[in-house]
Amino acid sequence: MAALSARAARGLLRRVPLGLGSAPRRCRYKEKWATTLPRVPATQQALQLFDMNYGMQFGPLWPSARVSLLSEPKYGALVNSFSRVHDVVHDLQDLRAADFVYAAQNGPAGGQGPAPLSPNIQCYTFPKGDISRFPPARPDTVGILGYYLMDAASLLPVLALNVQPGHLVLDLCAAPGGKTLALLQTGCCRHLTAKDISVSRIKRLHGILHSYLPKAARNNVSVSVEDGRNWEQVERDVFDRVLVDVPCTTDRHSVMEHDNNLFTRVRKKEREQLPMLQMQLLVAGILAAKPGGEVVYSTCTLSQLQNEYIVESAIKVAETQFSIGVHVEDLSCFRRLFQDTFSFYAECRVGELVLPHLTANFGPTYFCKLRRAQ
Amino acid sequence: MRLSRQALRWCSLAPSAWHRFLQAVQQCAPLPAAITAFSCPLLHHGGRHLSAEWPAGSASFTDSSQDTHVPEPTPALLEAVWLSLAPEHTRDKTGNLVLGNLVQSLLDMGFSHTQRSPNVLRMSVKQLKDRGEHLRQLGLSEGHLKHVVSRCPPIFTLPGKKIDATVRLFKEKCLFTTDQVMEILRSCPNVLLKEPSDLEYKFQYAFFRMGVKHKDVVKSGFFRAPFTVIRSRHVFLERRGLYQTPDKKGQTQVINAKLKEIIWLSDKDFLAQLACASLEEYDVFKKLLAREEEEEEEEKRTDSEDEDEDSEGEGELPDHETRIHALHLCYAGFGSTCPSWWRMVGGGGYVAFSSAPLAAHEIAQCMADLSLLSEGDFMVCKGSVAHS
C-alpha cells in the first residue's frame, strides 16, 4: 500500500534546501559534517533577513535582484597587461566579448567631459542578456595567466579611485586580491601596500600575484598581515589613494553557499559587529590618506546599514575625533557611463550601487568616493 | 451475424474482392438512402482506385491492378463497415448497444484519422470490444469515451497493461481517488501515452515541491501542461520571492498563486500579473535554468559513479537513510478509500508503514529528518504491513 515514495520525496526536498529555489548542488550542506538536515540552513536564514530588509528598502526592485542573486552570476575577464595582451584580447574578442571600460569611455556618455577613471584597465564582458561563460585562463609560455575572471562590478571602485602615475596606493582588506590585481594593471602605482587581517586569504593574494605578475613587477608591492582597524598603528597622511574594500555580509555568497556562511548561528555576534568594524576600517583609511588624497569605500552588499550609514558615520568621526574634513565626490556620471553593462540603483543617498539583474548579473557592489580636505 | 462471419472469411481476400463483398452486403441489408453516398477514405489510401461509393444497386470499381498500396481490409474494418451500414445490427450477441456507439465513435475517428492510427484497424473485434469495456470500467462512459478518443486516438492500441499501470500509479502511488483518476483521464488523456515514472515525478514535483493539493492538481489540468513550462515558471516565481513551498504545517509567508494560473496564463499575462517581470528577464532566466538542470544531471551522474567506488567517505548515507527505503508515507485524507483503521489518524494526517521492523523512535527520526512532520504529528502503527 505504498504511496508517495519517501525516497523520491526526500530526493525532491533535497534538491531544495528547504524552501529555497532549486539551487545548484554546491549549495547543499556538507553531508559529512551534518548528521541530519539543518533546521534552517544559513542560506535560508540570510534570504529571510534580506527579504525583510531589502523588500522594504528596494520595494518593487527587490524581486528582480533576488532572482539574480539566486541564479548564476556573470563574470568579466580582467586582461592581464603583463601577459601577451594582443593574443589574449584577440581570443576574448573571438568569443564575442567586448571591453566595457573602453566602450564606456568611447561611447556617447563618455563624451561628456573626461571621466576620471583609473587608466589601462581592460575588462571583457558579454553583452546584456548573454549568459555565455569565459573559459578558464590558460598560462602562456612563461606561465603567466592571460586574464582574471571576476565580478566586473567590483572593478568599478578601482576605476573610481582614479589612480594616476606616481601614486602611493594603500589597499586595506586586499585579499583575496582581485582589486589589488586591477590596481597593479594601471601601471601607475609607485608603490602598492596591500594589507589584510587573515593569513589564509593573504596566501591567496600571493598566489594571484605569482600567477599574474612577472617577478619584476612585484617589486613595488608590499603585502602584510595586519588588523587595519588599529588607528594608532596606521601610517598617517601618507597615501595618495586608499581603497577600503571592507568585509561585509557578501550577499550573493550568503544566499548560495553554505561554506563559510556568515549567517550561521555561531557567527551571529560577528555579524552584528560588522558595521562597527567597517566604520573603523574606513576611518583608518581616511587617516592613512594624505590631505587632498582620495579614498574609495566599497562593499558587496545591498544593505544601507553597511553602505551609506558607514560612510556617513565615518565622515562624522573623522570630523569630530580627528578634525579631518572629508568631502563626498559625486560619481553619478558612472551610472550613465556604464549603463550598457550594469544595472544601477538611482536612489543612494551617497555613493553608487550596482544591482544584480538577470540581464546583467553582476554585483551587488556599492562604492563611494571621499576626498580628504587639504 | 451470419454475414459478419462471411465478412471475416473474406478478410484475407485481395482488395478486388471488395466488389463481391459489397454486393453481398447490399443483398442482405437494404441500404438506407442516407448511406448511398458513403465514401470510405481508407479505401482511397495509397491508391485512389477503389471507391466504396455505393450508389444504390451498384458498386463500381476501377482497375484493381494498381491496388498494391491499399491495405488489406482487416476483420475489424469489415466489421465496422458492416456495422455502420446496418444500424439495426449494431447489437452483438449480448445486445450491447455501447459497443455499437463505441464503434461508431471509432468510425468517426478511426476512418478519418486512419493516417494517424492505422494500428487501430489491425486490432481484432474482440480486442476493440475488450478495450471499450475496460475503459468503461475505468469510468469513461460513452460521451466521455468519445471525447477521449477524439483527443487521443492511440488509446485503443495501447497495451492494456499500460493503461492499468497508469491507473494503478495514480491510485496507489499518487493517492488520487477513483473520481479524480477518472477526471484526469477525461481531461488529460495524454497521460496514457506517458511513462508512469515520468508521471510520478511530475506529480511529486507539484505535491512536494510546489505544495499543491490533489484536487488542485486535478482541476488545473496539470498533466496536460509541458513540465518544462511548469518548472521554469514555478522556479522563477519562487526565486523572485513570490512563491513558497509550504512548510510542514502547510503555511507560507506569501500567498502562492494558483496552479491553474501559473500553468495556463500566456507568457505576457504571467509576467504582468504574477511575476511582475520583463520578458527579457524571463528569457534569460529560462536559459540559465536550463543550463543549471543540465549541469546538475551531469553532476548526479558522475557522483553516482564516485559513490560506487567509495567504500567510506563523503557520499555515504547514514544508516537510517537506507531504512527510509522501507518506509512508505501515506497521506490519509478525508474521503480516501483506505481501511477503516486509518481513519483514526483523522483528516490530513500522515501514516507511516514500514516493511521492515522499525522501532517507533526510528520512524520518528526518519519522519523528522524528512522535515515533513514534527514528532508529535503522527501515530506509529505497530507491526509491519506487507502490501505490495
TrEMBL record, chain B:
Example GO molecular function term?
A: nucleic acid binding
Q: Does the keyword Lipid metabolism apply?
A: no
Q: Where is this region: Disordered?
A: 293-318
Record's keyword terms, sorted: Transit peptide
- Ranges of Acidic residues compositional bias? 293-316
Quote the InterPro entries the UniProt record gives: MTERF, MTERF_sf
> What's one Pfam family the UniProt record gives for this protein?
mTERF
Which family would the database say this protein is a member of? Answer: Belongs to the mTERF family.
This chain's protein is named Transcription termination factor 4, mitochondrial isoform A
